[in-house]
Each structure stands twice: as structure tokens, then as C-alpha cells.
Amino acid sequence: MTATPNRKALQALRLFAPIAGNYVRWAAVLSLGQDPRWRAAMVAGLKLSPQARVLDVAAGTGAITRLLEARGARVIAFDQSIEMLGVARRHGATAVRGTAEHLPFPDASFDGLTFGYLLRYVDPAPTMRELVRVLRPGGEIGMVEFGRPSGIWGPWWWVYTRLVLPIAGATIGSGWRKVGSFLGPSIDAFYREFPDDRLAQVWESAGLVDVRVARRSLGGGLIMWARKA
Predict the structure, then answer these.
(1) Alpha helices of the chain — where are they, by DSSP H?
(2) 0.85 cut: is pTM over it?
(3) Domains by residue range for the chain, with CATH
(4) What is the pLDDT of residues 158-192, one digit of tens each?
(5) I want to staple 5 with a disulfide (CB 3.0 to 4.6 A). Which of 9, 46, 139, 198 is the partner?
């Protein structure tokens, strides 16, 4: 039985289900081409052996799943959204539906685990423990998330996320107006609570070591890697 999503996860379901069909295209456009680059950099930074068994959590339409498969990994795409997973399946993914807080897999089931844009919709600490649980000792984990540019780029980030994104989303239609209005405040709130050093501590407390953090695109992209102790 699929566990009931929490309030934030239910909000994500309502926001992203209507845009599943064109998510990959417009996510790339609205991130000014950076989102595909962040995903590719995260996958490239993983130290996975050929034929590694990998769980792609919050897989959405399977963009990271396909990058992993291109490297020879055996991947399960895992997400709470039927609509998103439907797109992933049409691209050939092996897909399983469920919530990240309650993974339906035994301990130490996977050689690697990836996730993108997940932690803003869950309680990070227990969710990270659950993700680490299904990794084998020495297994690799990688994450893609939005960052928060600072310095001279901070005001430009605010203008783009608070003004440009909502207008662009309204122009696209099909649910993108709500997504465009939601993202900026959501990203900023998460970063205020979990700046890089605190997020790294959450990872370490979950049983991860060798935590690496990379900022991309003037700080707009956050990539993290680690391995299970």
C-alpha cells in the first residue's frame, strides 16, 4: 500500500501533475537551459560501477533515470505522481509509485541513489535516513536542487523568480502559472532553513560521508554527492 503523502508532498502532487506532459521541455526553458546541465553534472559525478543498481527517487518524468541508463545502470524510477511516472514509462523506464519517506525496498538494496528537487517537499532529516537505508554500504548518492544566488546576483534572482517566472508560467498555461508563482518563495524558504552547511550536516547525520557540494550557474543550482559509510 502506498503511504499517504504529507502536506507539502500533496501540494507538489497538485502542482506538478497538470504539467507532466511538457515538464522536461519547459523546465529546461524556464531554467534558461541550466536544469539539464545540473542533472548531467550530478550523474557524471557519481562513482558507479557498470551495471550498478540505482534508485532514482522523485524521478518525475525520468530525466535523471535516462541519464543513468545511458551509463549502463539498472534503474528504478520512483515517484509519487502517476502522471509523471506515466511519461517516464513511455520512455522505457521501470517505474514504481510511492513516497520518499517510506520506500518499499529492503535495506541495502541499491548501489546508488539519486533524487532531484525532493527535500523541499519532505522533512529532510528522516527522509534522508530513509534514502540512506536502502543504499548498500559504500553506495553513492547524488542530488540536484535549486540554489539561492547571493551577492550582486541575489536581486536578479528575486526579480526572475518573483516576476518573470509567474508571467512566463501564465503565458505557457497548463498549470505552469501556479508553478511559476510557487517556486521562488519555496526555494528561498528552504535555503533559509537549510543553507549548504546545515544540509551537509543532515546528510552526515543520516549516515553519509565524503559529502561534496557544488554550486552551479551563479549559485542557482545546487548539486551534492556522498557515499554511505
Answers:
(1) 7-16, 23-30, 34-44, 63-70, 82-90, 124-133, 153-159, 165-172, 176-193, 196-205
(2) yes
(3) 7-150+194-228 (3.40.50.150)
(4) 999 999 999 998 888 778 889 889 999 999 999 99
(5) 9
